[in-house]
Specification:
Length: about 600
């Protein structure tokens, strides 16, 4: 019999059995009547995805794409006026179908303190998600280390958050009675700053009534302010490795307790083990693991949607020399992580089946030339309004596309690593506030960000790895909601596209996304005009900055500038400005008409 991902499990209280040697926990299967045939059938059904791709408040205004994948190469879009919902029997089983159960009974098995139950109830979390119900018994009742892999948006944060909060509340009660100690109980390491802040906020909402203090330590924000927060002795610190390492070096009193922590989480672990983060992580782990006795009492959590994903080596690494080192199976990859973190005998839960894509996600692709990508982006944004993230492979591309879409009145918000941290957070906030907002981002926004109602993810360029495809796409179709991910592929990216498909174990092409060609001429006209304006504005900027530079240098060197050439530059500039402004007026008139 095949492993069935749709089975639901519930922890059974161990009443009196806690001392049985080797017993970690007992789980009861809630839907055991499912037989093999039904499972296969429901798997096939999932290929026919009927989706409601817009949030209810927007349904009336939009031409909602109701997607039905009929064959490997076709998506049939028919506008939906009714806004059909995904039928129950097609639910993906990640979030159990107990939506009517508001009684919180499903949490009872874990014996959470009232404060936690209150926090969960206030968030509307009436029952655990699959990854939560499969890991909580071992984590809470068995105090096991956990290695968890589950699809994007499936609730992994609380899968490690709840056992930690639960244990801290109980430990705090004990410590209070003994002395006035203020321990650092848990350290949660996260690869990106935005994600660290989000994880902290997510945990804080559930811990609202528990009196547990959670601090975030990330780069880009005031170090002094973060030190002040640490001075309040938070029980949990959520941190990016770089800033944490810096503060540790400075010898902050509270952080000096890191080798005595009781819980360590490495979220998005595979990303943390990549070069760029790896060195800092290794330094930290050495420090954290320094006390081998304390290490034995620590519970470790390792989570990611792509923990067990393995991909083919790039050609240059395929040479014999590197073979042994890089070709790793999922199991080897996990072992490497386990060794590095000093984890022993963990409970491994992998719900991804080798792929971490959400089952409520619809995938599509458009093959086009590099030049045409802007047309397709603009076409899509106009035809399918809704909260959208456009991913690019470089900061330069984000900047160019943001300028172009701004000229086209789309109000895009950029997000990339060379922006000031405050601006990054501000743009994320603005993106979250508006239902039709557009974020143009590098992969800095690919992992973990949980922004509600992101309906579409566009890949302006094919992501470099399968992992990136999964994480980028995982910004939509979260927590059982529907979403669409669309790849724009030019001929130079075909190889990479094939590589991504291989990593994702796809034996079929991603379905081609249908485009209505009748309005395409209008789209092209507007985008071309915007490109011309962009070029003229760039020229004006360039001439201005060159003139400024000449002026500065001449002043410094006490040289008199050639007035005639300066004048002609300035005249040329004002000519460009005029042409740009005429074109901008023309564009503004054209923009009023498209799809209005
Ligand atoms: N038990 C629950 N019931 C309902 N919603 C939940 C529950 N647990 C978590 N959620 C919600 O599900 C969403 C996704 O959770 P989370 O961000 O933890 O996903 P994730 O698996 O970590 O995703 P990613 O791999 O992209 O980081 C969040 O909005 C969270 O509030």
């Amino acid at each position: 019999m095949e492993y069935n991902n749709n089975l639901k499990w519930k922890a059974v209280p161990l009443n009196g059995l806690n001392d049985v040697e080797g017993l970690v926990g007992i789980e009861e299967c809630l839907n055991y009547e499912l037989n093999f045939k039904q499972t296969k059938k429901s798997k096939n059904k999932k290929k026919l995805i009927q989706s409601e791709c817009v949030s209810s408040e927007k349904q009336k205004q939009r031409k909602c794409p109701k997607k039905k994948i009929k064959s490997s190469s076709n998506i049939h879009l028919t506008p939906s006026t009714t806004g059909s919902t995904i039928p129950n029997d097609q639910s993906n089983g990640i979030f159990n179908d107990e939506s009517e159960d508001k009684s919180m009974n499903s949490w009872k098995a874990y014996d959470f303190p009232d404060s936690i139950l209150k926090g969960l109830s206030e968030q509307g979390f009436s029952y655990p998600t699959d990854i939560q119900s499969l890991t909580l018994p071992s984590a809470i009742l068995g105090r096991k280390d956990i290695l968890g892999a589950a699809e994007t948006g499936s609730g992994k944060t609380l899968a490690f958050g709840l056992p930690i909060l639960n244990s801290i509340i109980r430990m705090k009660d004990d410590v209070k009675n003994v002395n006035d100690e203020k321990p650092l109980y848990a350290l949660i390491l996260i690869p990106t700053r935005e994600l660290a802040i989000q994880v902290k906020n997510h945990l804080q909402k559930v811990a609202k009534y528990s009196g547990i203090n959670i601090a975030v330590v990330v780069g880009g924000l005031s170090a002094e302010k973060q030190e002040r927060l640490l001075n309040k002795f938070p029980e949990i610190v959520v941190a990016t490795p770089g800033r944490l390492w810096d503060l540790l070096q400075l010898g902050h009193e509270h952080l000096s307790k890191v080798n005595d922590i009781r819980f360590l989480v490495i979220d998005e672990t595979d990303r943390m083990l990549e070069s760029g983060h790896f060195k800092e992580l290794q330094n930290l782990l050495e420090k954290i693991n320094a006390d081998s006795e304390a290490r034995k009492h620590r519970q470790n959590f390792v989570f990611s949607a792509t923990l067990t994903l393995v991909h083919e080596l790039p050609k240059y690494l395929m040479k014999k020399k590197f073979r042994g080192n890089f070709e790793m199976t999922s199991e080897q990859k996990l072992k490497k992580i386990i060794n590095l973190l000093g984890i022993t005998n963990p409970k491994i839960v992998d719900l991804t089946h080798g792929v971490g894509l959400s089952q409520t996600l619809t995938e599509g692709r458009v093959n086009c030339s590099f030049q045409e990508k802007d047309y397709y982006v603009y076409y899509f944004l106009k035809k399918y309004p809704g909260r959208t993230i456009i991913f690019c492979n470089s900061i330069g591309c984000v900047k160019r596309l943001t300028t172009l879409l701004t000229l086209l009145d789309c109000n895009p918000l950029p997000l990339h690593a060379s922006m000031a941290q405050k601006q990054r957070l501000k743009n994320l906030e603005r993106f979250t506030e508006n239902t039709d907002s557009i974020l143009v981002a590098t992969d800095v926004a690919a992992r973990g960000l949980d922004i509600p109602f992101v309906e579409y993810v566009l890949h302006y360029q094919v992501p470099r790895t399968g992992e990136n495809y999964i994480h980028r796409s995982g910004r939509t179709a979260r927590a059982n909601k529907q979403g669409l991910t669309l790849l724009l592929i030019d001929s130079s990216e075909l190889q990479n596209y094939i590589k991504v498909c291989k990593t994702l174990n796809k034996n079929e092409d991603i379905p081609s996304f249908p485009v209505e060609k009748n309005c395409f001429e209008a789209v092209k006209q507007r985008v071309n005009l915007a490109r011309e304006i962009d070029k003229l504005q760039l020229q004006v900027k360039k001439t201005n900055s060159e003139a400024g530079w000449f002026r500065k240098v001449s002043e410094e060197m006490d040289i008199i500038l050639d007035d005639i050439s300066m004048k002609s530059d300035l005249e040329e500039n004002s000519k460009y400005k005029k042409i740009a402004s005429v074109k901008a007026k023309h564009l503004s008139n054209l923009l009023k008409n498209l799809y209005s």
